[in-house]
Amino acid sequence: MKLMNRIQWKQWLLGSILTVLGLGTTYGQAPRTVNIDEYTFTPLEVKTVKEIDTLLLSDSPEYVKEPGIVGAGTLHGKSRIYFYHVNERTEPMKVGILLENKGNAPAFVEIERAIYAKPSPDYFKVGRELSKKEVNSTALDLGAWANEGVTIPVRSKGLQQEIKKEKESLAQSKKLKAKKIEEAIKKDTTSRTISLVSHNTSGTEFVLRPGEVRPIFTELEKVLMKQDDLFSGIIDFSTTEPVYASVAVMEPKSTVTYGLPLLPIHPIDEVELRGTYEGMRRFHVVEPQFNSEAGPASFEIANDREDAFISGVDETSNNKLVKNKGNYGISNVYVLRTEGNTPYALYFNPLGGAFSGTFRITSSKGVRTYDVPVKGPYLGHETIYDTQLLDVFDRPEDLLLEYMSPGASNLPVRFLLIPQISEHENTDGKTSQYITNLVNKILGK
Question: pTM to 2 decimals?
Answer without folding.
Answer: 0.87
